[in-house]
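Pasting as-is:
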Amino acid sequence: MSKGAADNYNEKTAIYKHREWRGWKDTCFDFGQWCVLWGILIKWVFSHLLQNIKAIFRYRWMFSYLTVPSFFDRLCSGQRGAGLRAARYNLNYLASDVTGTLTTIFSADRNLHPNSKKAEELNKKIICVDELLPALLGKGFPDCKMILFQEYPMYLPSLINQHSPVHYIEQTELHGLPADVCPLPSFEAGLAIEDDFPKIGCCMVTSNMPCDGSIMTSMLQDRRIGLPTQPLNIPLRWKRDEVQEYAVAEMLSAIEFMEKHTGKTFNWDTLKKGCEIWNEQNKAKFEKWEMNRTSIPPHTGSSAWLYRIFEHQAVCGEQKALDNDRKVNAILQKQVAAGICPKNIKHRAVVWNTPANNYANFNNWLLECWGIDSVCEMIDLHGTELIDTSSKEKMLYGIARMYQTSTMRAHTKGGYELMLEDLWAKYDEFNGDMIIMFDQISCKGVGAISGLFEEGASRRGIKMCIVRQDLMDPTSITRREMRSDVNNFMQTVMNETPVDPSLVDFDDDESW
């Protein structure tokens, strides 16, 4: 009996016993980029050794970053050819940017450097923003750094290590918050309760995104953060033209607030440059989508949507990110032009609703086990309107629209029709033959219209696999249970046999 991918897993962890064999060329490339990643991490650690050691012992979530090489291996699992190269270049760029931001955070952190004049000077140049507010508006303050406040202690650790949210969610529930709230705001509240947010910045811009769960926990965070704070409210019914005047007014008010606390004057020229770069980043994304509509989609797998979220939120308007996009697109286009498809595709799936952070490499498993290629994902479709930079007013209007169509916001707000109708449109546009529908059990908004999805798919004769998950909480729905939902569907509804039978059932509950 031939061995499968799961035979390379350590028992109960699914951590590799040895590196994945992909043929000589791809294995050498993968190993080389793995070494590049280690170089990035080692350089980061030793450039501020004492500071990073203090951070590891001060913050529980910092231990998750020690497992990044294994995390990146999981996100590249099963990838070959241009897809592997795109994944590794995207992820290593992400690692380079994140380590640089962590250095800034820890250098300014009042918890690590109490009474430090150097840290205080740095904090005067740091603007903290809610993690779901893209950092594009910060391009108007070129001498300052806009940092997504919850991104580094909460969102990224939840992806890297499935167990990192559990302690903080438990603390939130112990303090009386409902146990059925979405794990994302519950995790944020737990960080505040445990005083595990770094103390940085001169001011904080919050928001009403993405949902009422996040708004409920904002008061807990505000008490702990202790910075001058202003909410940047985003219209719910963002499809309506009459709300845009209000949206722009909110932008102007936020700019005035940041000018007051940074002591800097907003620079419209640098904002324009950032918007123009972001437009080019979007065009690069459009090219990837166009390639994914072909019969040989090259840019799929978990690293694709993860990179897009990070690019949209943290590095929008960054020239280095655009350079990476162009390098990756050239590689992808070359493979498509040659008509090469180095993967076994049996089904083209549109993946809808927010993916599970605690199973970030779920897409890789879909392809390796069942030959299901995730050619389009809802989480990938946000902030795609190009910004008109011909005037200040039009730029603000464009940024407001970008914020209104942000991550976990574009489809969940604006009316339930957006969530429904865009699904059927993307299914046709990307030539899908099935839908993977995440049933995020703690999301009340999407859960309320679950019947409409099932009814719509049935009426159109579309095969839809419903996969239960709880976003960041592996104690509610495990990775194994998510795979079981797919296995049952593929065997009973699709009458399929697995591409790799060894991956149908395995235990990874103890895995990072």
